[in-house]
């Protein structure tokens, strides 16, 4: 027996709750199915010291925003989970917890069947709001590492005390990899960081948080149908930033000053060594050039709007030092590998015609090809800030 309902929302994180609030405001009957508890990933899949990359004043969702005493600070993962739980409670979101979805099947009569561990539903519309961070993408060469090398995905890392002795290789230099490498080095560990293409930013510029500037000049509101190559834009790595009370910058230069050894991309694992590509110098040069273009845009905005008297001087960071990068690392010295290599699509309940050959959901700005099916909470879904708490609300309103 199926329950007939207008909309099923899958996932009760920021995306699912934002959609639930929008549906509630329009008196559209719906249910939110959550495989764990509300804000489950914020409570169970984050390391102990993690904070938001965005300042608290940017924690905004439909009908709800940060109201604490530290708008320029950065909430911890636990505080973010509590914020989202309070958000759902504020409008009595119809969330069913411990409700894993088994299948989503469009029917010929214009309705969609959803089977879950808490029951079956038929709906006019379904919103996939599970986010992009549930299934770690681990390279196949992980299987070539010897059994005595500890291996963890970034979402399995909690703190330095969890990692055994020996040199630690962190693979991936976006937000997660940079933050984990920084924390491990601060704890006195020997850390090698395998880097590919990355996005370098200062935490603050001209006296303001870099996100304040990107919000001010319109970078975060750039739309998916306005960029030249949306596929490339959606693959842009997460920003090399950390939310910290000290407002620290965490680019490669800062990491090297901590003792982290940057190397190129992980290329191969042999019987005795881990090998890296010689691409690091080019990746650093590219990141510096892109940073310069962004700061040029900010400086132009300051000048064009007569803001010189209300912001600081142009305090541009210098070029990233070019390290003498090693091309290999002895397996005998390696104690652990932390895979900060991103996430793979994870929608096993969808029919094959709704995903591409890599498993990613087929959509156009969150609108899937099957009538009544929608996607929410993915990188650059409808605007550049779509994956941020501050961006998912606007996408939810439009969808």
Structure description:
Strand 17 (266-269) and strand 18 form a beta hairpin. By secondary structure, this protein is an alpha/beta fold. It has helices at residues 14-25, 40-44, 77-90, 175-186, 210-216, 230-234, 252-258, 280-304, 389-398, and strands spanning 2-10, 30-33, 60-61, 64-65, 95-96, 101-106, 112-116, 119-128, 150-153, 167-171, 191-194, 199-200, 204-205, 208-209, 239-240, 261-263, 266-269, 273-276, 328-330, 334-339, 373-375. The strands form six sheets. Strands 1, 2, 5, 6, 7, 8 and 21 form a seven-stranded mixed β-sheet that branches. The chain is globular and about 65 Å long. The chain is built from nine helices and 21 strands. Helix 1 (14-25) packs parallel to helix 9.
Kindly summarize this structure in a few lines.
The protein has helices at residues 14-25, 40-44, 77-90, 175-186, 210-216, 230-234, 252-258, 280-304, 389-398, and strands at 2-10, 30-33, 60-61, 64-65, 95-96, 101-106, 112-116, 119-128, 150-153, 167-171, 191-194, 199-200, 204-205, 208-209, 239-240, 261-263, 266-269, 273-276, 328-330, 334-339, 373-375. It has 399 residues and is of the alpha/beta class.
Key phrases:
21% strand; globular; 7-stranded mixed β-sheet; alpha/beta; 399 residues
Q: What is the tally of helical segments?
A: 9
Q: Which percent range describes the beta-strand content?
A: 15-25%
**Through-space gap between termini:** 29 Å
Q: What's the gyration radius in Å?
A: 22 Å
Helix content: 10-25%
Task: Decide which structural class fits the backbone.
Answer: alpha/beta
């Amino acid at each position: 027996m199926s329950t007939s309902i207008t909309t099923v929302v899958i996932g009760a994180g920021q995306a699912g709750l934002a959609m639930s609030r929008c549906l509630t405001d329009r008196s559209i009957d719906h249910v939110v199915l959550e495989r764990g508890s509300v804000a489950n990933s914020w409570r169970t899949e984050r390391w102990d010291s993690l904070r938001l990359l965005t300042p608290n004043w940017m924690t905004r969702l439909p009908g709800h925003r940060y109201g604490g005493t530290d708008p320029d600070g950065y909430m911890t993962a636990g505080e973010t989970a509590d914020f989202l739980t309070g958000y759902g409670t504020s409008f009595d979101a119809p969330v069913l917890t411990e409700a894993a979805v088994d299948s989503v099947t469009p029917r010929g009569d214009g309705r969609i069947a959803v089977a879950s561990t808490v029951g079956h539903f038929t709906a006019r519309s379904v919103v996939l709001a599970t986010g992009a961070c549930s299934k770690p993408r681990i390279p196949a060469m992980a299987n070539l590492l010897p059994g005595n090398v500890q291996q963890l995905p970034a979402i399995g890392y909690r703190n330095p005390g969890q990692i055994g002795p020996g040199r630690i290789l962190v693979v991936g230099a976006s937000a997660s990899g940079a933050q984990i490498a920084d924390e491990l080095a601060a704890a006195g560990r020997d850390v090698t960081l395998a880097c590919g293409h990355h996005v370098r930013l200062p935490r603050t510029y001209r006296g303001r948080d870099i996100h304040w500037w990107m919000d001010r000049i319109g970078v975060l509101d750039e739309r998916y149908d306005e960029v030249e190559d949306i596929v490339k834009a959606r693959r842009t790595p997460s920003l090399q930033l950390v939310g910290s009370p000290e407002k620290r910058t965490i680019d490669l230069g800062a990491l090297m000053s901590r003792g982290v050894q940057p190397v190129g991309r992980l290329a191969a694992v042999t019987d005795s060594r881990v090998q890296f590509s010689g691409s690091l110098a080019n990746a650093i040069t590219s990141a510096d050039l892109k940073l310069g273009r962004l700061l040029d845009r900010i400086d132009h905005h300051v000048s064009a709007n007569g803001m010189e008297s209300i912001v600081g001087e142009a305090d541009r960071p210098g070029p990233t030092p070019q390290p003498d990068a090693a091309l290999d690392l002895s397996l005998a010295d390696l104690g652990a590998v932390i895979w900060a290599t991103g996430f793979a699509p994870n929608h096993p309940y969808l029919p094959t015609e709704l995903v591409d050959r890599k498993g990613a959901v087929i959509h156009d700005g969150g609108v899937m090809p099957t009538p009544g099916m929608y996607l929410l909470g993915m990188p650059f879904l409808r605007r550049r800030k779509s994956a941020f708490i501050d961006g998912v609300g606007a996408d939810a309103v439009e969808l």
